[in-house]
Amino acid sequence: AEPTLGWPEDVAVQVALDRGTSHGARALPATEADAPFALRASYATWKRIVRGEVDPVAAVMRGELTLARG
Predict the structure, then answer these.
(1) What is the dihedral of CA 12, 13, 16, 21, to 10 degrees?
(2) Measured in Å, how far apart are the chain's first and last C-alpha atoms?
(3) 3 state SS of 69
């Protein structure tokens, strides 16, 4: 959730991956997400990861990105 940016509730992005290739993604309410693995981070952290400003592995090591399920 990031209410100041118009996201009042947690949101999930479900990504279809196959051998390192993304075959699509969709945003949905976090309560509807159903996946074997789930990563959790703040909006700001995801934004930095998507922009390539921070390495996801480094974010895990610093506790900014956590494995919520899997």
Answers:
(1) -140
(2) 22
(3) strand
